[in-house]
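JOB MANIFEST
job_type = single_chain_structure
chain_count = 1
residues = 317
[input]
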Amino acid sequence: MTSFGYSLMSEEHDPRALVRNAVAAEEAGFDFVTLSDHFHPWLFSQGHSPFAWSVLGAIAERTERVRIVTAVTCPIIRYHPAIIAQAAATVALMSEGRFGLGVGAGELLNEHVVGEPWPPAHIRHEMLYEAIDVMRLLWRGGRQNHHGDYYDVPDAQLFTRPEVPPEVYVAGGGASALRLAAEQGDGMFATEPQRSLVETYRSHGGDGKVFGQLAVCFDADEDKATRLAHERWRFAMGWPVQAELPNPSNFEAASKRVRPQDVTEQVAVGPDPERHVASFRKWIDAGFDHVCVVQVGPDQDAFLEFWRDELHPRLGD
């Protein structure tokens, strides 16, 4: 059975709106909510990027049922993994066990702001592997010491932690990351509806939850929805260099020639429920058991009503 989630896009909304939208998503029947964790938005048109962990605490307090997941946090450069271990333990406790930690190897867009070098992907994966070890070590409780290839944690103890540690879900778009997800994670994240990603994760022994995230832009006016999707989602074209661009100006330049029709090949737009259902079905048919959706643009209330009245009943058949 597929679980459905609502993606809180922190790059498009201020923190107050994100908390309100999380509450509304719970009321609309979503099973979980996800929150991105960025320092910058990808495009200037998106306009926001609040501190995710403050927002997560507020969501934990304001909601009662939905699970809460980061999608995703990079615990290796901008953050030290000991700090994320503490933050995740706090939110897990506040939410009474409803929190899951999605992690990834990051993008230069966010990580360069602390002035540390930007390693190649295989080094970042090694760092992420060790970072997960560090977090799991601290979640055990008691005084802990770690001396590794990338991180030192001398004489540290988490005094406030949940009885059951949060699950860890690893973002994976290639073989190396999927192997890491299978070995170190309790599940995996992907942003492309490819069965091969699920199969590769499973072939490496991964038996956890499999998360996929899609984008839509619901609006009664299809032309308006197309314009919004192009204005705010044209960065997400699956470019190999996406992790290497350092600021929104670079994403603006890289996406300058992306046409509206290029975006709508990937993003369902407009009011037709069957068009949106078909975009969800791609993920379900590819084997993803947790599917979350970004509604691109400012009008989240209309989408949540559309979800409750039109999409969820069709997807539940």
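[summary]
The radius of gyration is 19 Å.
The longest strand covers residues 209-217.
exit_status = 0
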